[in-house]
Amino acid sequence: xxxxxxxxxxxxxxxxxxxxxxxxxxxxxxxxxxxxxxxxxxxxxxxxxxxxxxxxxxxxxxxxxxxxxxxxxxxxxxxxxxxxxxxxxxxxxxxxxxxxxxxxxxxxxxxxxxxxxxxxxxxxxxxxxxxxxxxxxxxxxxxxxxxxxxxxxxxxxxxxxxxxxxxxxxxxxxxxxxxxxxxxxxxxxxxxxxxxxxxxxxxxxxxxxxxxxxxxxxxxxxxxxxxxxxxxxxxxxxxxxxxxxxxxxxxxxxxxxxxxxxxxxxxxxxxxxxxxxxxxxxxxxxxxxxxxxxxxxxxxxxxxxxxxxxxxxxxxxxxxxxxxxxxxxxxxxxxxxxxxxxxxxxxx
Length: 348
Hints:
Elements: H1 2-9, E1 19-23, E2 27-32, E3 36-42, E4 45-48, E5 54-57, H2 59-62, E6 72-75, E7 78-79, E8 82-83, H3 86-101, E9 111-116, H4 122-134, E10 139-144, H5 145-152, E11 163-168, E12 173-179, E13 182-189, H6 193-208, E14 210-211, H7 214-224, E15 236-243, E16 249-255, H8 256-262, H9 264-279, H10 283-292, E17 294-297, H11 306-314, E18 318-320, H12 327-337, H13 339-342
Parallel strand pairs: 1-9, 9-10, 11-17, 17-18
Antiparallel strand pairs: 1-2, 2-3, 4-5, 4-6, 7-8, 11-12, 12-13, 14-15, 15-16
Helix pairs in contact: 3-4, 5-12, 6-7, 9-11
């Protein structure tokens, strides 16, 4: 608690140089107090094999995915919501924080609030802390992503009323019931947008003998992917890749119904996780959820028809935030704006 009391002891509760970070599997977002979201970049790093020299970070590196020569690889240092490569994550985080701080005058090193998965282990927590400290943070505080997402959408988490959040990221889906500033029940599965991309790659390889890369699969998911079929909203898309038989590039036309069917497994895994979360929710909070519904955040919330599917499966109203991708970092930013109110949700 000493570190918290130091934070509050200054005349101003939070100096202007405090930063919030959503360190996601797919994207990293940075929020600066008083300015809002100042950075939104893919969590991708291009490195030279052998020397491990960094050749590109963020959007520049994402453009290299599937296009690199043998001596270069574009990697995602975070996998399933946690740090898979500590060294590369440190370099990526340092790069993003430097990008943010170099354009501003900071009196001292910034304090950083990082959104992390609620099921994070102590080892993973230490990796996040060491990455942020190595990247130039003075102190690192962590907040569970579902809690940050709930704060970001404006839910009254400090009240005894139950608030349920489904946060679907690139690597994980987290479902949490929050009351009195704490997570009462939590279900976390390592299924997210990346699993849907992998399912699309597998489907096109098996059914069309077409080999595509991760960026193409993501584009297919965004443009014609869906969880619920509406006849008036069916779409088709031309997909380009390499023919596995002839080895020659070719184009095939794919229907949204095919993509919906091939992504059923990961989508059903998310539905089952929501069911399990509802089953372990205390009855008093369940009645609140019936009245208030469930809020869906994260990039996965943008999958067409997923809210409709969950409504049909749970018979509960599902609300999708207007900007689901930024909920976690917005919530972490609100914590910076009013630390006294939200101090109970921070983990050192």
